[in-house]
Amino acid sequence: MKRSHVNDIIARSDAFMRSFGFVLPPFAYWSPEEMKARVASDCPTIFGARLGWDITDYGKGRFDEFGLVLFTLRNGDASNLKTGQGMVYAEKLMITRSGQVNPLHRHAIKTEDIINRGGGTLVLQMYNSRSDGTVDEESDVEVATDARLRRLKAGDLLKLLPGESVTLLPGNWHAFWAEDGDVLMGEVSTVNDDLTDNYFREPVGRFSAIEEDAPPVHLLVSDYDAWLRAG
């Protein structure tokens, strides 16, 4: 992806979130220079927890067809999960565009609630996992949608209107996209680790390679190692 395109997506995404009354925290708007200074002084958690903007085209170079905008608002650490104490949770805002597919994947550790916060209809295609972690294309999938247990055939589509949500457990394979308009999504989950806990059915690049045709207005989490790591 070109950096100029990333800058434009961030600006439009912020406006879309604000249209539903969601205002991001101050660090969403810091310049790269301010982000570097603040992480080195009083905000090291931003780097360690990978908080901030995350825009991906899954390495396909066709963001309008395959892509997602994410902003990680808060996130704990895997050590918290081991002890059951401290910050054992995470929260994201995401935007999926109408017709923009997010490929089939699962998580081994993370449990997540996916929420339609507003816009069009959020559509999820769902499968269970076999014992070896691969996609089970035969067994029914049982999921909780706003406390209501629902049973779906393998590969069936679950459609969530604004305000509706679904709880996805480790091993629940899911792909998703929007219909009838872009969707603002919420994610409330256990601790999130996008570096090690995303398993895709088809090989994809979770983080996009960036062509630096313009200076970054705001950093992506995938920029942090290059921009923020000490030394």
UniProtKB/TrEMBL annotation:
Q: Which UniProt keywords apply?
A: Carbohydrate metabolism, Isomerase, Manganese, Metal-binding
Report the superkingdom from the record. Bacteria
Which terms in the Gene Ontology molecular function aspect does this entry carry? D-lyxose ketol-isomerase activity; metal ion binding
Q: State if Lipid biosynthesis is listed as a keyword.
A: no
Might you give the EC number(s) for this enzyme? 5.3.1.15
InterPro entries according to UniProt: D-lyxose_isomer, EcSI_cupin, RmlC-like_jellyroll, RmlC_Cupin_sf
Quickly give the catalysed reaction.
D-lyxose = D-xylulose
Required cofactors, per record?
Answer: Mn(2+)
Q: Determine if Metal-binding is one of this entry's keywords.
A: yes
Report the family membership: Belongs to the D-lyxose ketol-isomerase family.
> What name does UniProt use for this protein?
D-lyxose ketol-isomerase
